[in-house]
User: Fold Elongator complex protein 6 from Nyctiprogne leucopyga.
Amino acid sequence: QGKFTLLRDTRTDGSFLVHHFLSFYLRAGCKVCFVALLQSFSHYNIVAQKLGVSLTAAKERGQLVFLEGLKSCLDLLFGEEEEEQSGQPSPLQFISESASNLKALFDFVQTSLTPADSDSWKGPVLLVDDLSVLLSLGATPVAVLDFIHYCRVTVCSQLKGNIVVLVHSNEDSEDEENELVVTSLCHHSDLILWVEGLATGFCKDVHGQIKIIRRLSLELMAEQDHVQIYQYKIQDKNVTFFARGLSAAVL
Assistant:
């Protein structure tokens, strides 16, 4: 409880970790607010069904609050029907405003995860896929970092919940704003799961490597961060992890 987990991917796609955490927290009985900026609801639902979870059922029973970023962006840019019906500003209101202000998105997260008296969920979870999209939509790095800061205070500190955020990064990239956000988030994370493509290129039996960084230095114990490195292969319904150089194809 109260942990901030950063999912970072470089030269590969780390979305399999998002699907893992989404199904994991729903099975655990947690209240989940999923800010999905990268794919449609049907995409996440199809993958979740393979993992034994129904997002539609979770939404109906109030366990999952799903923000479909692609649909919200289209509604904001080409029509205002959704806002007029609900009477509430869109969480992605900043797209149509001159000021890069993510307060509406934070209010959406806070409202979604603040427990009601009738709620019996184990704990709140905020899941974001993927934070880099906010920069592409016009938000400034400072606004994105402020949004994450306020979410950490509310979800992690006050509600004793967890936050899981995916960001794309590329050390050779000229996108300075994105690298600034990624570096800042790394400094504040309790756990970093850094997925990288193989330096040697594509391999049929090894899809990449994952670096697990436990930030012990954040706990004021003056210890070095604990780092573990594994390689992995993504299968239809699960992922296989193994030590570097010990894939089934090699052995």
